[in-house]
Each structure stands twice: as structure tokens, then as C-alpha cells.
Amino acid sequence: MARGMLPPMLARAALLVVMIAIAGGLAARRAGLLTRLVRLGRPVDRSGEVPARVAREGTQVLAQRKLFQRPLPGLMHALIFWGFLVLLTTIVEVAGQLIDPAFELPLIGNTAWLGLVQDLFAAGVLVGIAIALAIRLGQRPERFVGSHRREAYRILGLIFWIVLTLFLARGARIALGYAPDWWWTPVSTSASYLFTWMSEGWQRTFMWLFLWLHMALILGFLVYIGYSKHLHIATSAINVYLANTKPRGTLTPLRIDLEAAGGDDVHLGAATVTDLTRKELLDLYACTECGRCQGACPAWNTGKPLSPKLLVMNLRDHLFEQGPAILEARATGGEADPVPLVPEVVDEEVLWACTTCGACMQECPVDIEHVDTIVDMRRNLVMAESRFPAEAGALLRNLETAGNPWGMPQAQRAEWAEGLDVRVVGEGERAPEYLYWVGCAGSFDDRAKAISRSVVTLLQRARVSFAILGPRELCTGDPARRIGNEYLFQTLAEQNVQTLNGAGATTVIANCPHCFNTLRNEYPDYGGDFEVIHHSQLFARLVDEGRLKPTGSVPATIAYHDPCYLGRHNGVYREPRRALEAVPGVETVEMPRHAERAMCCGAGGARMWMEERIGKRINEERADEAASTGADTVGVACPYCLIMLDDGAKARGVDTQVLDLAQVLARSIEGSPPA
């Protein structure tokens, strides 16, 4: 050996170390910038409930549960994801083999089962790539509109070459005798036949070529993902872990000191990118651009400008454009010129089109919280800038002055109950076993009043001890919070909690899912700790216990519509159906979109009080879908849904009646002896 020359093994090790150092340094530099950009956002505590978060990592990240909601795309992604998990072992092997071609993993290397697993999963990655290309080039789903398609093909090509060079390197090693010619490594063994006819010198040349090329591709991929849409490879597991563990209908509170409100230090929603929370900024990294959120969005699917996917992509582009300038300015003790998110990045119509139905969050495989981001931007528009649709002004004025969206006098809140012998809990009195929270719709809307009267009929028939608050019941504040007026919501919430606690309420019945969600999930933040049940849950239980006996036949074919705030937001699907199926004469059918994938009626997110001027009306779309089932009745478990779907059916000229499950049960039970 000539003086100054390194032994080949040492030279290869040095080269490998240099390559890893360069790639690791570049990747670390990018990761550092990405971390600093996320830390521009407001802190949010997502540290609790560790067992639930770890369990979610197992089901959603490792088992790919959400992706398998769509079998073929789910299989495609799982094959690639699981393949790369297994191929982590081959990366270690290749790194060792670049130094010593005979290297095997300690303890588990040179075993039949490991070679078989590696071969099968690497081949699975190639199958996954083929499925991905078939979907993109053959099916061409509409949900991919707006995605970075060229980058997707670039990533798929890079993954293909990584797997191909792996098989070729393994084949050359088998031909050289470094690995046994086993039948249980069928792909690698097949690849070895490309080299068996060559001389040993050429076999060795190709082995080194493909080993080094494979490692270069792996390190290049490591650096590239930090700049690509596949950043989700590194961030999605973190995003899933940090996702909210509370029911989906629970918004992150924005606590406002009501006495100090109006001061300079009060945070009023998201005006600029630094006003978003750190989780909302991490969401931007985690987006896979799969378009599942867009495909499920009722606004997008009825011609509105809101695409949850494009919203996230636009915010991400803005963060990458504006974030470094903000960091640079802060490093020198200054501040970059703030860029308003609305309308510079997000159009106002995009925000107001959202019904907060949560369909986007239900579909998202990486737990992006689109609704929280939208509501945060709404909060700034409403509270800081007083910008909102003109008709929504009446809603907010009515809530402020009358305590309900209809603007009706509170003294009339219990008039619907005249003649029903319903007890009203007065000031200083204690509530009985159950407190029936009627809600504003059930108190003031003529169609929804029929639900309230049916609920009372059923409670009395089952001998349930209950009372109502009457004029002392205010709106829960759900429409105020969803439209973005957190100050007004907090005011109403604190007044209602004080009333409920003063009445000694322990169990609250709500027939409105919006009230149910707010009382159950959001009032605990304001001291409202009581059990809250939906009327469908109570009635299903009373039927099971024999305290309610639906004996009268109600001939009807009912297509049940899942309310967003009962189903997707709180997981109540089976009880309403059980209650309806207990009625003689009732036949239930399902709409094409039902349960977790049910379409919104269009009322959520305070859309109930806003005009729908763009595209097809959401309630008419849902009415058409209900009519397509051939059902003569649409069953609901929400007064908003009843109003919206009844209007939709009339607008479309559909001969379908809309009934709450309480009305159906009451029709069957009226006239039968009490329990």
C-alpha cells in the first residue's frame, strides 16, 4: 500500500461519514428553521392524556385506520408506509455493507425470516406506487385539484428508485455469495440472475454502484422531504399525538377577562400568522394534500369557495414566505410588517362558508384541526374588526339584547309548554332529577316547538321527574362562538353556568345537539360540571328499560339524518336509530352519506342565520339525497336540521316530511297507557 493511502474499508467508512454528515447537517438546518417557524405561534397545552395519545399513535399512525376508510387509497399508503418502516433495517444493513460487504445486522441478520420480511415489504412498496399511479392517472379524483401533482410524481419516482436500487444491490450481493440464494427472498434472488452471468469483477462493480446509489438516494430523500409536500412523513406522527383528545365539537377556548376586555393586551383571534397556535402551524406541515377534507366538505361540494385543503396549503405557503422575515426581524430586535391573513391569504367568503360540521377533520388522516383555524380567523374579523356578513349582525344583536337568536322576549320562552303541566324552576328553587334544556329553537320556532312538546309528552309518559328553566334559560352561545364572537359566548356561558349551578342541576337533557355539545364539552371550562345527555340517548334507554313502550304503528320509511354536532362531534350514532327502530311500522333506510360521513344540513357554524348566495344550497343538496333513498320521511334529532331540511325539501319540491325522533316516538305512544 502506498504511503498516505487509506485502507479501502477505512476510506469507504470516511466517505460514508462525510455523506451522512452533509445530509444530516442540511436536514437538521431545515428542521431547525421549521421548528422556529412553528414556535412563532401561540403556545397551546396538549400535554395531558398520554395513554389516549399513545393509543391514537397505534391506531392512526401505525395501523393507518383513517386511511383505510377508503380501502384502495388506504392500501396504497399502508403498503408504502409499512414498507419504509421495515426498510429501516435495510438502511442500517446497507450502511454497514458499504464498509464491509459481508455485514449483517447483529442478532437478527442473516436469518430467513428477516430476508423474507424485507423482500415482501419492499415489493409491497412497489405495489403501492403502482396503485398510486393508477389512482392519479386512471381515476383522477377531483380531491387532488390544487395539489402539487408534479411533486407527487417526483416523490413516487424517488421512492421507486430507492427500492429498485435496494433490490439490485441485494441481487449483486447474492451473486457474489455474500448472501445465501434463498427461495424466501424471491425478489432479491430474482434480481441476482441479472448478475450471475457476469464476471466477479463486474458483479462487485455493480454491487458497489447500487449500494452507494441507494445510500445517496436515501440521504437525498432525507434532505428533500424537509422542502417538499412530503414533510408530513416527519411531522404527521407528531401532529396526531398533539391532536385534541376532547370530542371533536370542542373548540379551543379563548379566555377573555370580561372586565379587562378592550385593553391592548387582549388577544382577539388570528389576524396574522403569528396569532395562530403552534398546533395550527404544525397542521400546515402535516398536510398530505390528499384532498380527503375537500372531498367531504359540504361547502366545496355545493360550489362554495371553501376548500379545507387549499386553505391549509395557502397558509403553509404564507408561513414559508413570511416566517423567515419575521424570524430575521426579531433576531435584530425589530418586527416585520404584519401581513393580514384576511384577505391577503384567505378570502373572507372562504371563512364564512364553513358550517363547522367537522367532516374535514373526520376524514383527515393526520388530525389537522381545520375548524379551529377557521374560527380563530373569524374571531379576529368579528371581535377586532367588526367584519361579518350583514345578516349575521341581527343574530349578534339579538343574542346581546334578548339572550336568543330569534330576538324574542325571554318572558315568552316557556309559552310553548302551555297546557302541558311543566314545572319551571324559579329563582332560588332546586331542579329535580332531570333539567330539560329546551334551547332557543325549541322555545321560539314553531316547527321546533313541536319537538319540545313531544319530548315533554314522552318524559311525562315515562314518569321522568324533570323541569325547565323557562325565562332564565339563555342561548348557550353556540352560534356566537362559532361565528367568532368569543366575548359574547363567554358572557352567555358564565350566566348560564351560574343559573344551572344555582338550580342544583346534575343531569341536563338537551334535544338540540348544539346545546348538547356546548353544555357537555365547553361549559366545563367555565365551571359547568354536570352530566349532559341527548334526548335520543335518554329515549333509547327508556325504551330498553320498558318505561317507554311504543305500541302504536307509525307507517313510515325513514331516512335518518345524522346531525353533525351529535354524530361526528360527539359520536352518538346508534341511539337515535335504536329509538326509531323500536316504533312499529317504521322502516329505516340509510342515505349514501350517513354516520361518520353524513352531510351537514347547512345550519352549523352560525350559517343558520346567514344567507347562502354562492352555489347550491346545502340543505337542498341534502334534501335531494334524502329523496334519492325513496323514503317518505326524513328523521332528525336536531331542531336546526328539522328546520333546514324541511326548507330544503320544500324548495326542491320534494314530497317528504321531516320529523324529529321524539315526534315519531310520541305518535306511537300517545294513547297507550303510561309506564
The count of β-strands is 8
- Radius of gyration equals 30 Å
Q: In this structure, how is the largest beta sheet organized?
A: 4 strands, parallel
Task: Give unreliable regions as ranges.
Answer: none
Shape summary: elongated
Domain module count: 4
Oligomer: single chain
Strand order of the largest sheet: 2-1-3-4
The chain-level mean pLDDT equals 91
What's the end-to-end separation, in Å? 101 Å
Question: Helical proportion?
Answer: 40-55%
User: What's the helix count?
Assistant: 26
Question: Can you put this structure into words, describing what you see?
Answer:
This protein has 675 residues and is mainly α. The protein folds into four domains: 8-41 and 50-227, no CATH class; 273-384, Alpha-helical ferredoxin (Fumarate Reductase Iron-sulfur Protein, Chain B, domain 2); 403-542, Rossmann fold, CATH 3.40.50; 544-669, Rossmann fold. It contains 26 helices and eight strands. Strand 3 (507-510), helix 21 (513-522) and strand 4 form a beta-alpha-beta unit. Helix 3 (71-99) crosses helix 4, helix 4 packs antiparallel against helix 5 and helix 18 (446-461) crosses helix 26. The chain is elongated and about 100 Å long. The model has no long low-confidence stretch (mean pLDDT 91).
